[in-house]
Q: What sequence folds into this?
């Protein structure tokens, strides 16, 4: 495969190759890379979009680290991320192992059905769930009253609003991750299960000692992807907050991206908002690396 | 002898056969998946006073046309649907073309700087999108594209992930020999792409296009910023309704329903391809 004979390159082919990649790079450099680099630049300024741009060095970062709103947003983001990722991946694993059963009837139907939430828009999902979790007429509170639980104002509490948002994320992504796990499970050789069976391993033991090690890399992949996506959560808190971008009266569900958006496009502090973006990138990189290290370590042990 | 062994190996898989409680678990899961859609219908078709009752209604009500009227009195929802379709179709078609074309170049052609450019693509896939949102907004303002659909379409025309995906597929399914043979027959590089490469990767390219369509249809963070009152998409229309009618769930839900039905129809047509696309491990979360 490594056979790279330049002699096969005919006249016009080099030109075609450049033609083929150039639209991508032109658009990408302009609308993708340039904004990211420029964002890093303006993070060092007191940048009023309609007025002055004053160089302030690291001041934005210093102010940010002393800003309660930043720490609240970070806490909320991490809390929502943990509450949504852990149950979601566990449920996806369970659904996938059922979908992977031999002689499962209607398997095409089940596979399609679990993917439906994933194609629905965040906006519609957030609108529906904030109604389901409504304080006075919501279905969840109605069901809870059978267990003697008083009406919960889901949006106004810290943990309860995080749970509400986490459930939206779980609803949207569980089926998608289940299909990814299913694909990984199907690539495990059948003989491994057969010899485990001959050794008298129970269903659970087969799952523990054949299935889990077999999909280890895929699990690391899904944890990393959910981390990168989860730490950027924006749509759900932005929608349930209505017209406000503060993430609730006490900022109880303000997330890092929502905070960035609020500072940039409501308070017009472009430099400050750009600094939030950079700290966010650092947080994401930190957790993505930590995650893949931990997941790798746990599944090796 | 052989058939006997086969039998034994089949029966030895007894532990992994689907049982009734597995179907039961799946059914409960599907119920949880379906309920929010049903609740959308319930709220959109019932009057606020009915929704306030205990126990809450669980059936379709008579109020749908009234809800739709509220939606249309508030925003030009037809216009929003047309805008969303225009944006999503152009973005999807452009990505199918640009990404398979560039993917072909990376997979099968030699050119200066190829390795570096490909590493660059891998790198850009890892940067979160919102990091550049402020300068991107400044750029759109400078170009006077605010309130024009261009502001949403142009930045979405290409996708680093799409190029990466198409390159992988073309490398793995298209043997060099086929291209060599076409060259011997005197086909130009463009003809090779048009007549040989693209037809072979078309199924994957179309799945990629579907995902691009869905992402463009569902996006609202960026459209909310660069499109205002005059040029709404379905998502920003719902968002605007939510901000205005904070407690009137019927209207918001009516708009959500109108925005979701076209997607569900599309889903029923292409669900097999989407499932296959996800299972090929091909889609970024």
A:
């Amino acid at each position: 495969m490594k056979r790279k004979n330049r002699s096969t390159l005919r006249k016009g082919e080099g030109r075609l190759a450049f033609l083929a990649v150039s639209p991508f790079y032109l658009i990408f450099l302009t609308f993708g890379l340039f904004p990211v680099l420029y964002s890093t630049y303006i993070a060092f300024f007191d940048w009023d979009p309609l007025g002055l741009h004053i160089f302030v060095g690291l001041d934005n970062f210093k102010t940010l680290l002393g800003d309660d709103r930043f720490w609240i947003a970070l806490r909320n983001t991490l809390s929502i991320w943990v509450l949504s990722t852990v149950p979601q991946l566990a449920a996806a694993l369970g659904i996938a192992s059922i979908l992977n059963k031999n002689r499962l009837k209607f398997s095409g139907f089940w596979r399609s059905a679990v993917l439906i939430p994933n194609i629905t828009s965040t906006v519609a999902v957030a609108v529906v769930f904030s109604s389901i979790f409504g304080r006075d007429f919501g279905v969840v509170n109605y069901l809870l009253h059978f267990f003697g639980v008083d009406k919960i104002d889901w949006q106004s509490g810290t943990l309860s609003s995080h749970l509400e948002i986490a459930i939206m994320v779980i609803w949207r992504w569980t089926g998608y991750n289940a299909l990814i796990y299913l694909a990984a499970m199907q690539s495990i050789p059948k003989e491994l299960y057969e010899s485990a069976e001959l050794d008298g391993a129970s269903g659970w033991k087969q799952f523990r000692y054949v299935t889990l090690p077999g999909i280890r890399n895929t699990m690391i992949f899904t944890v990393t992807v959910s981390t990168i996506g989860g730490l950027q959560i924006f749509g759900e808190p932005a929608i349930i907050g209505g017209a406000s971008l503060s993430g609730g009266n006490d900022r109880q569900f303000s997330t890092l991206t929502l905070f960035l958006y609020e500072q940039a496009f409501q308070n017009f502090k472009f430099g400050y908002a750009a600094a939030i973006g950079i700290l966010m990138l650092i947080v994401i990189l930190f957790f993505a690396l930590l995650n893949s290290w931990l997941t790798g370590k746990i599944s090796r042990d | 002898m052989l058939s006997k062994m086969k039998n034994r190996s089949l029966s030895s898989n007894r532990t992994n056969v689907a049982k009734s409680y597995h179907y039961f678990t799946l059914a409960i899961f599907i119920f949880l998946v379906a309920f929010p859609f049903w609740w959308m219908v319930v709220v959109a078709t019932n009057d606020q006073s009915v929704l306030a009752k205990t126990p809450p209604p669980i059936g379709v009500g008579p109020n749908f046309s009234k809800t739709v009227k509220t939606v249309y009195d508030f925003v030009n929802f037809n216009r929003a649907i047309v805008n969303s379709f225009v944006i999503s179709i152009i973005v999807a078609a452009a990505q199918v073309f640009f990404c398979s074309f560039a993917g072909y170049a990376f997979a099968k052609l030699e050119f200066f700087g190829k390795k570096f450019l490909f590493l660059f693509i891998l790198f850009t896939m890892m940067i979160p999108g919102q990091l550049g949102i402020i300068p991107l907004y400044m750029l759109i303002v400078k170009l006077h594209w605010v309130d024009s659909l261009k502001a949403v379409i142009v930045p979405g025309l290409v996708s680093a992930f799409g190029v990466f995906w198409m390159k992988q597929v073309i490398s793995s399914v298209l043997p060099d020999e086929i291209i060599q043979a076409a060259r011997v027959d005197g086909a130009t590089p463009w003809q090779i792409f048009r007549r040989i490469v693209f037809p072979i990767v078309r199924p994957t390219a179309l799945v990629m296009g579907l995902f691009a369509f869905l992402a463009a249809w569902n996006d609202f963070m960026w459209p909310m910023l660069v499109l205002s009152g005059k040029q709404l998409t379905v998502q920003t229309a719902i968002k605007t309704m939510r901000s205005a009618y904070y407690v009137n769930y019927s209207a918001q839900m009516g708009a959500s329903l109108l925005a979701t039905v076209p997607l569900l129809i599309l889903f029923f047509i292409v669900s097999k391809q989407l499932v296959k696309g996800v299972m090929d491990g091909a889609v970024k979360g």
Observations:
- Residues 1-12 of chain B have pLDDT under 50 and may be disordered.
